[in-house]
Write a structure and sequence with these properties.
By secondary structure, this protein is mainly α. The protein has one domain. Helices cover 38% and strands 7% of the residues. It has a two-stranded antiparallel ribbon. The protein is globular and about 40 Å long. It starts with 23 loop residues before the first helix and ends with a strand.
Length: 92
């Protein structure tokens, strides 16, 4: 039986939003909220066997430039969580 960790800490050093015109503060708030929700629901599969540090996630789906700040933050969070779930390329 695997035990769920009592705490999960995800630290994002920087999000770079080239080509988007959305308010960065609103994008960040939506991103944090959605990523917290996804981690609560699904955990962080890459860290299932213990702590892991990921330097970069790549190979994730592209996002359309015309999204609202809220939607962009949510979609970014989903893309990051997909990477933390083992999809895309991970640099550790």
């Amino acid at each position: 039986m695997s035990e769920r960790p009592s705490a999960i800490r995800v630290e994002i050093g920087e999000l770079v939003l080239d080509g988007f015109r959305a308010d960065p503060a609103r994008v960040s708030a939506a991103f944090e909220s959605e990523l917290a929700r996804l981690v609560r629901l699904h955990g962080v599969p890459l860290a299932a066997n213990g702590a892991v540090t990921v330097d970069a996630l790549s190979g994730l789906a592209a996002l359309p430039a015309g999204l609202s700040a809220r939607r962009l933050g949510q979609e970014l969070a989903r893309a990051v969580h997909e990477g933390l779930s083992g999809h895309g390329e991970v640099t550790v």
